[in-house]
Amino acid sequence: MGCRGIRVPGHTACLAHLTANDRTDYLARLGPGADIDHRGTPFSEDLLAQLLVALHDPAAGRPRLGQARFDGAIFTDAAWFEEAIFGSVSFRTATFTGTAGFVRATFTGEAEFDWVTFNSVASFGGANFTGDAWFRMATFSSLVQFPGTIFASNAVFSGARFESAPWLGPLACGSEMRLDLAVFEAPITMAIATRQLSLRRTRWASAATLRLRYAQVDLAGAVMEYPVTVAAEPAQFTGLEADMLSEEVLAGQDTGVKVADLSGVDAAHLTLTDMDLSECRFAGAVHLDQLHMGGRTAFAGPPIGWHRRGLLPLRWSRRRTVAEEHHWRAHKARQPTPLTGQPPSLRTWRTGPHHPDSNLTPGPEAMAALYRQLRKAFEDAKNEPGAADFYYGEMEMRRHDRVGTAPGERKLLWGYWLLSGYGLRASRALGWLAAAMLVTIVLLMGFGLPKDPPKLEAIGTMPREGGKISLEIDKADPQNPTEKRFTRERFEKALNVTLNSVLFRSSGQDLTTAGTYIEMASRVSEPILLGLALLAIRNRVKR
Fold first, then answer.
1. Separation of alpha carbons 111 and 354, rounded Å
2. What is the DSSP letter of 500?
3. The pTM is what?
């Protein structure tokens, strides 16, 4: 009466409520690899031991189950499944009151632990999951032990609740590990090697450290109430009993860690160490200016090589860029959507997940805000070269923003970009300076230097009756030569005038009227270009 346990075939009661003789008869008919169905059955430690003895495989030296169903079962004492071999198994909505021991167990099919409640220690150390493992909405009230655990396929912990687990791992997952909507109520350290790690809309109610290998991490919408550190682990993890964690399920993959999405995250409590952010989407994140980035943090760069814009050759200067700029420029350039599985080309901008939908692709105004916040984060970390790259990106987006930037300001930005790359491209400013000096030299040789140095003339009148002589000294106006204007001697003079006007502000050279105006223009423009070049050099080398 009141027992939810499913009836044993041929009987009117569940395994726990069979008579002693009926239970002995049922267990005697079982053998290694038998399918069993004990949904809703209450299991004591002794009853579970009897069942596993009946399923013991002498060849393997451990219990071997076929398709096993323990949905809704209640394990009132410790449940020891150590080294058991499962086919497909389901523990949906089961409750483990005591220790749940699955140490070195092997799951050859799917393993379902959805809505399971672990009131005590849940130990899966050294377990091997060949098929998908499901722990959706599971509750871990105490320790969670996964050292040396291998998930060959997917491991899904969506909606799971970790109330007091200090560790998760070290474990390896050959496909995707999903912890979407999971809640972590106590400080926790994770050590995970996986291809993909989804942490969308997780809630961190305490501090956490994630040490990762191989993973592409999705943190979209995560809520971090306390500091959370995501760091790439360079060395192989140590698994069960100090053995190295096997990473065969990840063979051939790059051990580096990428962050794919930070949209909707409050980054004030987030620290990223040695992360690859080349494909990370930042749009929608807040407090990016308080994001902490340590170690080697990589961002995407512009396309490499030479390109054409109309008839003009074009080469993108190297700098750090955010993924959203790639997506926007790919949309603006009307790049085709790459084929599924086709790797992105380094010679083109990368298309976004919503390409070519312009409504879902962030525009220049939004990206300028992203660059501004990331620049602040780099400045606070005393990384001036990194901050300079994001300043360049911010200026680029403001220059292209036809909504939030006034037309006059956009024109000034165009000029600032053209002359010196926003004060960050010394080669561009020096190139313009060299061109301006060359033009000045040519103009001086052609129109500014006189044919001969002007001579002083004294004109006076001798009074007949004697007395003082009055003289008037005058200098003839310099005249341009009619031929041989472009000679070596005139080049040296023009160069001397130009250099003096740039560096020393006065040439002391007699010039024609045209030459005087040419020198005045040189004194105004060329020192500005020299100053921009020096500013760009300072901004690129300052630490």
1. 35
2. I
3. 0.83
